[in-house]
């Protein structure tokens, strides 16, 4: 990322455990809706289930639309039944991988140390790591949001992270899939905090690292969120499943 490309907006869709072969149609629909123009101005990414990844890389073709994985193992290969190595994602055309999503942290008990190891595997494979952090409602109500997220950032950001190979995603757990969105003041405050932490952690290497917001981002609220100073795009779950909604969220960046 040269200076002119610094903090180029990234709109990332996380399909989670959704999508059969029939869902691949969304890729063509999205390309038709957005065309080459959006893909020249900002980075757009879809992270489908691993079963669709290689097919969707082919579907995206030369459109500029990026594909990514939703998780990877910390090891490069070996006896880990059911897991996927970062190099395998890279091999089938992924450019990014999400690590440390709160659903992985909760459902699979992933610690920040494990997330960091996964992110380091992603970097070693030549992928861009999207490192997710976020507090639960209980932690926010107990006044611990900043300390929890701070601990996750310090514990999960990989060694060797730069603005080119690492993206942060702040996703308050209570806002994911619930329709509840953090207020713009809360988002601005947390993103400012994360940016200070990144400066302290990575110095100049992370000054221009992108920090995404995620949690119930929809076409109707996206432009207010994306207009905030330290918000460099979004990680979109439910609203990324339909090309029309995802396209409207991309439009909400106004090409900034
Ligand atoms: P949501 O999910 O947009 O459905 O709230 C966001 C995420 O978990 O990445």
What is the topology?
Layout: E1 10-14, H1 25-41, E2 43-47, H2 50-60, E3 66-69, H3 86-91, E4 96-99, H4 102-107, H5 112-124, E5 128-133, H6 137-141, H7 145-156, E6 166-170, H8 184-202, E7 210-214, H9 222-226, E8 233-236, H10 243-251
The chain binds 2-phosphoglycolic acid.
Would you kindly provide a written description of the structure presented here, covering whatever features stand out?
With 256 residues, the protein is α/β, with parallel strands linked by helices. It has one domain: Alpha-Beta Barrel (TIM Barrel). 40% of the residues lie in helices and 15% in strands. It has ten helices and eight strands. It has helices spanning 25-41, 50-60, 86-91, 102-107, 112-124, 137-141, 145-156, 184-202, 222-226, 243-251; strands at 10-14, 43-47, 66-69, 96-99, 128-133, 166-170, 210-214, 233-236. It has an eight-stranded parallel β-barrel, surrounded by six helices. Helix 1 (25-41) packs parallel to helix 10 (243-251), helix 5 (112-124) runs parallel beside helix 7 and helix 7 (145-156) packs parallel to helix 8 (184-202).
